[in-house]
Amino acid sequence: MNKIILLGFCGSSIPVIADLANEIYQCKNFDVVKNIEVGKTDFPWNSSDYRFKVSLSGDYKFNHNDIPNIHFGVLHSHIKFILFHYFEKHHCITEERYLNLIYQNSYFAKSSSYSHGFMLQPMSAVSSFCEIGFGVTIKRGSSIGHHVKLGNFVNLNPGVVLSGHIEVGDGTEIGTGTCVGNNITIGKNCLIGTGSVVTKNIPDGVVAYGNPCKVIRENERWNLR
Predict the structure, then answer these.
(1) What are phi and psi of 84, to 5 degrees?
(2) Which end of the chain has fewer CB atoms at under 10 Å, N or C?
(3) Whose CA is closest to 50, among 92, 91, 87, 6?
(4) HEC-encoded secondary structure of the chain
């Protein structure tokens, strides 16, 4: 692939995304398109192997072809949500335009399915009969059991373990090293803290953490609607 377009900019996420895209598609050219001016757009690592062109959305001309060549330039759920709806409204960028970044040494069961804009980082596994929504990120070393359903824009941080028959609602982020037991539902727009052990259902729109995981407060940081 000659070029990949990254929507949005996060200095800590761009290196991860670019390296993964290079491993999968041998791509070294990236157009980074921002919806707003966010100050300096500095690349905090030696990016001499790659070429980055940074533009504001109003200055960038999208080529509306049939080849999916777009991904997010950020990883957090609520920012992806904002970016997707902004570029859909102003530039007609639909879900089908987003490519998937699935690393070769990760496992994805044939009986499972995923939507567009999916990122599966190295050393991760997705077991049988899972459903992965749009814009989902599963970070390195995570293990997803059988019959798991992940809603749109879900973000699983490194080392998350989901057992069987679990549902995670749209826009929820689960912290590093969290373990979720069988037959658990985690609601929409939740933030589950690092290292939590989830043994009971979690309602929509809350911050929860601990062992066992308990609801601490409402998640006022974001609300995906």
Answers:
(1) -60, -50
(2) C
(3) 6
(4) CCCEEEECCCCCCHHHHHHHHHHHHCCCEEEEEECCCCCCCCCCCCCCCCEEEEEEHHHCCCCCCCCCCEEECCCCHHHHHHHHHHHHHHHCCCHHHECCEECCCCEECCCCEECCCCEECCCCEECCCCEECCCCEECCCCEECCCEEECCCCEECCCCEECCCEEECCCCEECCCCEECCCCEECCCCEECCCCEECCCECCCEEEECCCCEEEEECCCCCCC
CB-based contact 136:157 (threshold 8 Å): no
Whether the CB-CB separation of 179 and 192 falls below 8 Å is answered with no
pLDDT tens-digit map of 16-60: 999 999 999 999 999 999 987 665 556 555 567 889 898 998 889
β-bridge partners, 30:
4, 52
Beta 4-7 vs 29-34: how paired, if at all? Answer: parallel
Q: What are φ and ψ of residue 219, in 5° steps? A: -90, 90
pTM over 0.70: yes
**Taking CA 78 as the corner, what is the angle to CA 73 and CA 82, rounded to the nearest 5 degrees?**
70
Residue whose tokens read 């589950």: 192
In this predicted model, what pLDDT tens digit does every residue of 153-168 receive, in sequence order? 999 999 999 999 999 9
pLDDT digits (tens, 9 = 90+) for 192-213: 999 999 999 999 999 999 999 9
